[in-house]
Design brief:
alpha+beta; 5-stranded antiparallel β-sheet; 6 helices; rod-shaped
Length: 203
Amino acid sequence: MDQLLGFITLTSPLFLIVLWVPVCIALAVWIGRKFIKKGKLLKIVVGTLIFMVLLILPVADEIAGRIYFNHLCETEAGAKVYQTIELPAEYWDADGKPTFYKGANNNDVPSYTFERLGITITAKRNQRQRWFHINQSGTIYTSKTTGQRLSEVVRFGYGGGWIAREMTPHNFAITCGLANSYDDLIRQQFIPASKEGGGNGNN
């Protein structure tokens, strides 16, 4: 019984689409006949346009939301560095790679790295794009000595259109801005100190 209910839940969006197609056809034909009095070709053109508009109407929010989500991922998501930090030679190996961070793939936790180097970590409050059900969150990195914002990681999550939210069980948001962002942040945030001045940790 549970399997049957699960199958019905999973296939309900497809079932509704199958029902919606003849409704769109009927409405397009009716509107064409009702408001276009002359010209068979004109009726066909107008009816086709109306059919296409009606057909995509239930998923219009999904299309618009996905376009906007992709735009945010390309333009705003990921690591953003506002001020670099110079670290002296003992923090780097002979190849110029950091010895204080081995990378997320090696189970190194970026938050420990920042805390050790005098940087405060603050979770960015979630913000919701109400119309498209897009959530924005992130992490802000601030210097403990100066209080200046040094960098941040911005993430976005998209929960899909109303069909996906209402009819798909256990619907999970797709996200962007997290994969490799901490490794990128470490690489961009910290640089070897110049030989002339040396680094003080928060330049």
